[in-house]
Specification:
This protein has about 425 residues and is an alpha/beta fold. The chain has helices at about 10-20, 30-40, 60-70, 80-85, 105-110, 125-130, 165-180, 200-220, 245-260, 275-280, 310-315, 405-410, 415-420; strands spanning about 25, 45-55, 70-75, 95, 115-120, 135-140, 185-190, 225, 270, 285-295, 300, 320-325, 335-340, 345-355, 360-365, 385-390, 395-400.
């Protein structure tokens, strides 16, 4: 699959004159069209909703676009809950899936009628003490442990993960919650990250559906929605194939008909909480080549760094790189493409075949629309870049400005430091 960018070379050069690099840019039209394809594929279920994983790209402009396409949200923190309120994603369209959660965050979610998804058995008592009672609707996160095989290195083995309840704990949790007055129940799991194998998700759905039947048989609780989590991957490498939404939906529907329908549980809502496949392919990090280095390897240094996009340095993740205006040029040079952070893992690409890169060239890093700007940080005092949105009419708006040194120093008492005596 050849990677594309929505602006030609002249358009990008003109944009950079107004918004100097580095910056992220997202394609509104492509995100909307993709969300519609996703929704259409899963409309074969009696009730379906995608709850966008806010952590993947926490910008209220993008959340508002997704809200207009019928999307809910999956949140893991108080700021994410607040962003959803701002973007118009409210009440039970928000699922609060957090872990080791402070009491004030549970209170906020409850006050806003969000669905609370508990991550541990002990959180039942914690939530009850926090609120004075349990909510009328409650969900529990299932950790299948060794029952789930084939998880990749990013998510790790379920039995080594800090998330969720065991199967036995799940049964007891529903029994106790029902006794304490909870009336509506959901079931959730999350055991994948950037997975491209359709059958992996079908197997996960089967585990969830079977547990829903067991819960009914052993506790009398009727699960009203099954949240299959996220983790659908995207083809970062050109030779990889994108997940076929329709194939995935049809295979999961077959398990639904085989397990849920005969058990008398139909209809159950089927939810996803995907982030990466919704916005990932439709966001790019645009940088400028500012240095070259010729030692044991050939290096090209950009004006962005791992503080802007940490996936390659953190996971060794692959991101396709193209050079604006040289898309069809021969890839007859081999470079490590790096940033300026004082860490040797600050590399966007290692020994990558690329066209000859000249200083001042605009370098495009693809598939950065999820877990890109969101994972930025300020190590070395680096200032995180801004975000732009390419609207459907071709105009570009700034949806997050670049950080400034004043932003970085804002929490410091700079006046007091002069008076401080060591």
């Amino acid at each position: 699959m050849k990677k594309t960018f929505p602006l030609n070379h002249e358009q990008l050069k003109s944009l950079v004159e107004k918004y100097p690099t580095p910056f992220y840019i997202y394609d509104e039209k492509a995100i909307r069209e993709n969300m519609r394809r996703f929704t259409k594929a899963f409309s074969i279920f009696p009730k379906f909703r995608e709850h966008f994983a806010v952590k993947a790209c926490p910008n209220p402009y993008l959340l508002k676009i997704l809200a207009q396409e019928g999307c809910g949200a999956d949140c893991s923190s108080l700021p994410e809950l607040m962003l959803c309120e701002i973007a118009g994603i409210k009440k039970d369209k928000v699922i609060f899936t957090s872990n080791e959660t402070p009491a004030n965050e549970f209170k906020y979610a409850y006050a806003n009628s969000n669905i609370i998804n508990l991550d541990d058995f002990t959180h039942i008592d914690f939530l009850e003490k926090t609120l004075g009672h349990l909510p009328k609707t409650l969900c529990f996160r299932y950790n299948p442990g060794s029952a789930k095989h084939g998880c990749n290195s990013i998510i790790g083995k379920p039995e080594e993960a800090k998330y969720g309840l065991t199967r036995e704990q799940m049964i007891e949790a529903y029994r106790i919650a029902k006794e304490k007055g909870v009336e509506h129940f959901g079931l959730h799991t999350m055991v994948a990250s950037n997975e491209l194998n359709v059958d992996f998700f079908v197997d996960t759905a089967k585990l969830v559906f079977e547990l829903a039947v067991e819960v009914k048989e052993k506790t009398g609780v009727r699960i009203e929605f099954a949240d299959l989590g996220g983790g659908i991957g995207i083809p970062y490498k050109p030779e990889q194939k994108a997940v076929d939404y329709e194939e995935l939906a049809k295979k999961i529907r077959a398990e639904y008909d085989k397990i849920i329908v005969p058990a008398g549980l139909d209809p159950i809502g089927v939810y996803w909480e995907c982030g990466r496949p919704i916005t990932g392919p439709y966001g790019w990090l645009v940088s400028t080549a500012i240095h070259e280095k010729h030692i044991y390897r050939e290096y090209i240094a950009l004006d962005s760094c791992m503080a802007d996009l940490m996936r390659p340095g953190m996971y060794g993740a692959y991101h396709e790189i193209t050079v604006s205006g040289k898309e069809d040029a021969a890839k007859d040079n081999v470079y490590d493409v790096v940033g300026s952070l004082c860490e040797n893992c600050d590399k966007f690409a290692i020994q990558r075949q690329l066209p000859k890169i000249d200083m001042g060239d605009l370098v495009i890093i693809h598939d950065a629309g999820a877990h890109g700007r969101a994972m930025g940080y300020n190590y070395n005092g680096k200032l995180r870049c801004g975000e732009l949105l390419l609207r459907e009419d071709g105009t570009v708006v700034e949806i997050r400005r670049k950080e400034t040194i004043n932003d970085l120093f804002l929490t410091l008492d700079l006046d007091g430091v002069e008076k401080f005596k060591a």
